[in-house]
């Protein structure tokens, strides 16, 4: 007899496992199908915990600490005569962090009574799921089973985009996953793509001494960001040693031995450059291979995203899709909120996700973060806007920490004073930007932020000064009078 559950989740990444946990908390019987085997062991947590968000941040933090010790301690009166690093030790620490977190998710499943079906899942007609178990550490497939579900949540995530001009070659031409596994520092590293992943991975290896060249086909740098922030980021990252070349379209690659030659074109013509290793970081695509039976009734768009409504309901009643499989930014926290929203709906509750307040973060140093509208977006929608900006360079806490690059910028409606967006480049930007997100959630005005008291000395005082600056009232900067 087939197993039967109130909810079957296909995919154990951030969106999938949070959906499963919330559904179990609401009293539903839940199974989660996850096929990932990471370093020889079955693993929950998806791309984020295993080969994405968490391992990349572990390496970003380790390399930043080394770089700061090597180049930033002297100003504090701390002298280190001889300093070195151990890439293998950094990698081992990264793997420990990943293992602790993925193991923690497994314990949460156990504690909430969630059945983890280790293998692959395919949605069939009638809300049935074809489950193919994985047997043993080498991933052999077992006998196919049919699982009955009252509700199905598709949470299969995404995979890196591969491009024909740069086919992957183990250890030489790699995607984001391979770039997290280098056991030594390349002398010269090429990165195709100046997006979030390319900049973060480029920063990791640049801090350890690699010469990094980033090739970006688009002429604009970080086009999704506010222009002022993007301009500042390009300047700062360039000073750090990232050679960012815009309008550089890769046309081919050739690997010989331990060298890969990259051919690309830009406004000055054709070029060729040799690298020790090459990272392909041109984006991700929804992972739908083997996920959907032909007669399951699910509709995909032209880019292979699953079509859903604002509440993540697909074209089939009782079947939902979340995270990287559906429209919107491919972000773990967006997937998490969608997963919990869907679980609430299945249990008969009302829930929604405010897509206007999804935060974006790039974990370079300084960090880059944003929420809401950019100045350019607001103007393109015909809004009369006013803006305010304040630098960390005159903030006491930032100066004390010798970490004062960047600024906070607010965008507001000039007629209503309502906050429209917040943009940060600077220390702890990914945390500071949440102040703007909360303000947006509550429909706050700029005046609301102006009237609040911010602790001194803190980095968050820059938020206060930026809000005051919108109306020409910042205290610690000479302000031009605003009409």
Topology summary:
Layout: E1 3-10, H1 14-25, E2 30-34, E3 37-38, E4 41-42, H2 46-51, H3 53-71, H4 87-111, E5 115-123, E6 128-135, E7 140-141, E8 145-154, E9 158-160, E10 173-174, H5 176-179, E11 188-192, H6 196-207, E12 211-216, H7 227-240, E13 242-246, E14 249-256, E15 259-266, E16 269-275, E17 277-280, E18 284-286, E19 319-321, H8 332-346, E20 360-362, E21 367-372, H9 375-380, E22 385-391, H10 396-400, E23 407-413, E24 419-426, H11 429-441, H12 446-450, H13 461-469
Parallel strand pairs: 1-2, 1-8, 2-5, 8-19, 10-17, 11-12, 11-17, 12-13
Antiparallel strand pairs: 3-4, 5-6, 6-7, 6-8, 9-18, 14-15, 15-16, 20-21, 21-24, 22-23, 23-24
Fold and architecture overview:
With 483 residues, the chain is α/β, with parallel strands linked by helices. 30% of the residues lie in helices and 27% in strands. It contains 13 helices and 24 strands. The protein has helices at residues 14-25, 46-51, 53-71, 87-111, 176-179, 196-207, 227-240, 332-346, 375-380, 396-400, 429-441, 446-450, 461-469; strands at residues 3-10, 30-34, 37-38, 41-42, 115-123, 128-135, 140-141, 145-154, 158-160, 173-174, 188-192, 211-216, 242-246, 249-256, 259-266, 269-275, 277-280, 284-286, 319-321, 360-362, 367-372, 385-391, 407-413, 419-426. The strands form six sheets. It has a five-stranded mixed β-barrel. Strands 10-17-11-12-13 form a five-stranded parallel sheet. The longest helix has 25 residues, at 87-111. The protein is globular and about 70 Å long.
């Amino acid at each position: 007899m087939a197993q039967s559950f109130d909810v079957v989740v296909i995919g154990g990444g951030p969106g999938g496992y949070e959906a499963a946990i919330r559904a179990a908390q609401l009293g539903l019987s839940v199974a989660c199908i996850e096929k990932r085997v990471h370093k020889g062991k079955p693993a929950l947590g998806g791309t984020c915990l295993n080969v994405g968000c968490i391992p990349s941040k572990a390496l970003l933090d380790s390399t930043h600490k080394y770089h700061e010790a090597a180049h930033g301690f002297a100003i504090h009166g701390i002298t280190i005569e001889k300093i070195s690093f151990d890439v293998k030790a950094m990698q081992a620490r990264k793997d420990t962090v990943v293992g602790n977190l993925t193991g923690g998710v497994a314990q949460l499943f156990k504690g909430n009574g969630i059945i983890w079906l280790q293998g692959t899942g395919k949605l069939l007609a009638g809300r049935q799921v074809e489950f193919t178990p994985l047997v043993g550490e080498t991933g052999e497939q077992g006998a196919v089973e049919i699982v009955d579900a009252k509700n199905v949540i598709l949470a299969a995530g995404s995979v890196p985009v591969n491009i024909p001009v740069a086919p992957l070659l183990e250890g030489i031409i790699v995607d984001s996953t391979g770039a997290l596994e280098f056991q030594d520092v390349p002398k010269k590293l090429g990165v195709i793509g100046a997006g979030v992943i390319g900049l973060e991975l480029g920063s990791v290896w640049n801090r350890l001494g690699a010469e990094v060249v980033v090739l970006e086909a688009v002429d604009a740098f970080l086009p999704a960001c506010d222009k002022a922030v993007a301009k500042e980021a390009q300047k700062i990252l360039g000073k750090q040693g990232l050679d960012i070349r815009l309008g550089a379209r890769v046309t081919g690659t050739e690997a010989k031995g331990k060298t890969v030659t990259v051919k690309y074109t830009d406004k000055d013509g054709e070029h060729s450059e040799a690298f020790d290793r090459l990272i392909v970081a041109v984006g991700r695509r929804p992972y739908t291979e083997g996920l959907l039976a032909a007669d399951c009734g699910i509709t995909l768009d032209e880019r292979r995203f699953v079509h859903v409504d604002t509440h993540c309901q697909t074209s089939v009643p009782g079947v939902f899709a979340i995270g990287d499989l559906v429209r919107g930014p491919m972000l773990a926290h967006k997937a998490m909120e969608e997963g919990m929203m869907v679980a609430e709906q299945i249990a008969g509750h009302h829930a929604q996700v405010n897509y206007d307040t999804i935060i974006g973060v790039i974990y370079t140093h300084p960090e880059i973060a944003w929420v809401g509208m950019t100045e350019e977006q607001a103007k393109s929608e015909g809004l009369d806007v006013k803006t305010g900006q304040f630098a960390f360079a005159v903030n006491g806490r930032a100066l004390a920490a010798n970490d004062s690059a960047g600024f906070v910028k607010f965008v507001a409606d000039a007629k209503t004073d309502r906050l429209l967006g917040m943009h940060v480049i600077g220390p702890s930007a990914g945390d500071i930007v949440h102040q703007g997100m909360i303000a947006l959630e509550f429909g706050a005005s700029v005046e609301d932020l102006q009237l609040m008291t911010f602790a001194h000395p803190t980095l968050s005082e820059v938020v206060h000064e930026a809000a005051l600056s919108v109306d020409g009232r910042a205290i610690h900067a000479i302000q031009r009078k605003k009409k």
